[in-house]
Amino acid sequence: MNKDFIDKNYTKYNDTAELLKVLSHPIRLCIVRGLIDKGKCNVSYMQNCLEIPQSTLSQHLQKLRMTGIIQGNRNGLEINYTVCNETVIKLINVLFE
């Protein structure tokens, strides 16, 4: 058996592993899928759809923002979120074909 089959430099997979960890929560997965389907969305709309407290939603949005999966664009007092990571869009589309 070829011992070089597995790449020993697993540290280069850290970013991908972190991305998958963040997406592994059902609420965050739901948020990302919803944003992809809808295009963009504000916090009030998401909170009404998900029926979760605003503080809980904010924590999930923060994790998605910190990982570079979503971005928020301010429009007056409202912030509309969109998915900005093409890899995540492709992954979600494959998972939910």
UniProtKB/TrEMBL annotation:
Residues 8-97 form the HTH arsR-type domain. The keyword Transferase does not apply. SMART domains: HTH_ARSR. It holds the Pfam family HTH_20. Keywords: DNA-binding, Transcription, Transcription regulation. InterPro entries: ArsR-like_HTH, HTH_ArsR_DNA-bd_dom, Metal_resp_trans_reg, WH-like_DNA-bd_sf, WH_DNA-bd_sf. The keyword Transcription regulation applies. NCBIfam families: HTH_metalloreg. This is ArsR family transcriptional regulator. It comes from Clostridium algifaecis. The lineage of its organism: Bacteria, Bacillati, Bacillota, Clostridia, Eubacteriales.
